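Final report, closing paragraph on structural work. Over the funding period we assembled a curated collection of sequence-structure pairs, and we close with a single example.
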Amino acid sequence: MRYRLERQKSGALAVYNTAYAETMHPGAGPWAEANALYVQGSALAALLLGGGAQEAGRRAAAHRGAPLVLFDVGLGAAANALAAVTCRDELARRGARPRPLHLVSFEAELEALAFALAEADALGYPRGQEPLLRDLLRDGRAERDGLRWEVRVGDFRRRIEEEPERAEVIFFDPFSPRANPELWSLETLEALHRCRPRAGGTRLVTYSTAFGTRAGLLLAGFFVGEGPLPQARRAGTCATTWFADLARPLTPAWLARWRHDREPWPPLTPPAAHRALRERLLEHPQWAQFPAETPAPPEPPPARRIGRTGPGRTGPRRAQSGRTEPRSAEPRSAEPRRAESGRTEPSRTGPSRTGPGRAERPPREASHPGPRRARPRAARRRV
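Its predicted structure, as stored:
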């Protein structure tokens, strides 16, 4: 068994994976995070009722009466999926008429689901839903009034390419990019963007706030904003196909922080593609929604300093453009200097080396000065 229960600081029990050394829904616990981040962050209740604020209500009205398709990526111990089922059940219990819910879960294996069913009393949230979980484990699907739940077991990258359904809501909750980089790659995020319905849009919610994750969602074609828990440690990220759905969209100021992050790209992104992806990111239509703030281009790397620096530097100076500049445009005077005592000192250039019978070399013209050559330093005497 690769799973065990761990008590969080909040007092809630969470499922711990010993193979990846990661806890599912750490901190607040699985049920609290599933409801606050995924159910509320996706405006699931408004979509189920066919109303609500901003574009979520308009999109739901366009699909009134049709099943709402929800992709649950990373079924795990089923906290997110059961939170969505409970949301619809509570709406129906209050006398509302919610849309049918078609839940499609993706998971590599169902060991965590079986563990959650065995520990239903300790975890709390699976209580009352045991028949659904048993059907799901036995048949790969479960149905009841207003609910159709299917699970796709296997490699998610292959499964998502073969998936015939189109999702209005995506709960994206795999293991971290460190433990499961394939599911956070740009290729996978682009496949999720292709699963949007033709009429309407898609809203994706995830716990990750990494710069690489948000950059990958932007490059995949989503509009991206802050999650529903801005004060929490796991604030999360919302990504939509309609900009108006975002309550707190990322602004161009985010790009300045992104440029200085150590891991700005999605996992498995080849370095050869960084330049083209950077241009795509800077041209994303999200930044056009902020006309007063235009994204600044990436800062160029600092120019290399050639030669010694400081007052004792020898050799020519090089500007950032790479051109060689002379140290001085005026030739050095060959007249002898006069010290304070009035005595005449020999010139720095030294006595004439032409000797008798030799013609004096004409001085270098001032209009074409050249760089001075550094004199070789005398060898340091060993003691």
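The chain has a mean pLDDT of 82. The chain is about 25% helix and 15% strand. We thank the funder for supporting this effort.
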